[in-house]
Amino acid sequence: MNERESLFRRLAAACGGHGAPAGEPSPGRATVAPDGDPVARFAETFTAAGGFLLRGPAESATADLGEMLRAEGVTALFFPEDDPEAREVAEALVPFGPFHLTTGAEVRGGSGAVTAGFRTAEAAIAESGTIVETSVGGKTLLPGLIADVHVSIVRDASVVARMDEALAAFTADPPRNISFLSGPSKTADIEQTLTVGAHGPKKAIALLLPPKCAQHE
Amino acid sequence: MKLDSNAFGRNARKALQDKTLQEALGRTTMRFQAHRNAAAAALPEFEAERERASRIKRDVLDHLDTYLARFIEAAEKKGAIVHVARDAAQAREIAARIAREEGVTLAVKSKSMASEEVSLNGALQEAGVTVVESDLGEFIIQLAGESPSHIIAPAVHKTREQVSRLFERHLGEPPTDSIPALVGMARRHLRSKFLSAGMGVSGGNFLVADTGSVVLVTNEGNGRMGTILPRVHLAVVGIEKVLPRMADLPTFLRLLPRSASGQTISSYVSIVTGARRAGDPEGPERMHILLLDCGRSAILEGKYREILKCVRCAACLNVCPVYQSVGGHAYGWVYSGPIGAVLTPLLVGLPEAAALPDASTLCGACADVCPVKIPLPDFLLELRSDVREQGLKTPGEVAAMKGYAGVMKRAGLLEAIERIAGVLGQFFTKGKGIAGLPYPFSGWTERRDFPAPAAQPFRKRWKIRRGARGDTR
Question: Least CA distance to A29: which residue of chain B?
Answer without folding.
Answer: B52
